[in-house]
TrEMBL record:
The chain crosses the membrane at residues 31-46, 53-71, 77-94. Keywords: Membrane, Transmembrane, Transmembrane helix. The lineage of its organism: Bacteria, Pseudomonadati, Bacteroidota, Cytophagia, Cytophagales. It comes from Spirosoma arboris. The keyword Membrane applies. This is Uncharacterized protein. The keyword Membrane applies.
Amino acid sequence: MKIYRAILLTTAVLLFLATLAALSLPNGFFTFLRIFVCGVAIYVALQERDSIVALIGLLMLVILFNPLEPIQLPQPTWRIIDLATAAAFIRLAFKPSRTQNQQQF
């Protein structure tokens, strides 16, 4: 479970970096970000098979961050999407696992 959390937190940090307006990041960073977020969303979707809401949200992220057919949106819109995605990944990283919930009862 530590690797799962590390992946989610790393993705959140990259998304926060993408929202910093003061940085002039190269275009390659955003291509890498799309590939990384899309891959992590697929991985997390496989881990979160029990929640249909999480699956739908993650599928939307896979489509939105698809590196093969990029969706063109204004930069302020991407900042909001990046922050919301980072917050969702942080929430998933700190969500109690099913085994922890079962042990409490």
